[in-house]
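Reminder to self: tokens first, then the designed residues, so the page reads top to bottom the way the pipeline ran.
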């Protein structure tokens, strides 16, 4: 197991989670700083409200990519260590919360979908909110 590669992937995942992607997307497309508008929340909902449809859709795509990229990179770099791919979602969510106070739920859901579509779809239809 290449520990250096794993450590690099963990750090990169945290760093990716910490990036204010939605804020950057809205600033580049609509020229607005979400932290100065409305409640100051820089989430996807605020991107739609203050940046418009194009900025909102771009923000959604950026958040989806944020969850998918670490899983795909780990699956490519460490194909025999599948558990590392899913574990990278933990520092990703930690980076989201620690730096930008985001929850990282959307990112994690898309990461799990890429990691194992049947697991996510099963939980979605069974109702994971019911603890089943």
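Designed residues (132 positions):
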């Amino acid at each position: 197991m290449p520990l250096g590669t794993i450590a690099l992937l963990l750090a990169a995942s945290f760093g990716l989670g910490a990036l204010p992607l939605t804020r950057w997307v809205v600033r580049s497309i609509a020229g607005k700083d979400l932290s100065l508008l409305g409640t100051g929340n820089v989430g996807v909902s605020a991107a739609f409200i203050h940046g418009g449809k194009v900025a909102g859709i771009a923000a959604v795509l950026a958040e989806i990519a944020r969850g998918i990229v670490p899983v795909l990179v780990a699956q490519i770099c460490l194909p025999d260590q599948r558990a590392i791919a899913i574990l990278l979602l933990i520092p990703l969510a930690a980076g989201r919360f620690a730096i930008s106070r985001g929850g990282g739920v959307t990112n994690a859901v898309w990461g799990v979908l890429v990691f194992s579509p049947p697991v996510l779809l099963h939980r979605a239809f069974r109702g994971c909110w019911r603890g089943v």
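The chain has a mean pLDDT of 85.
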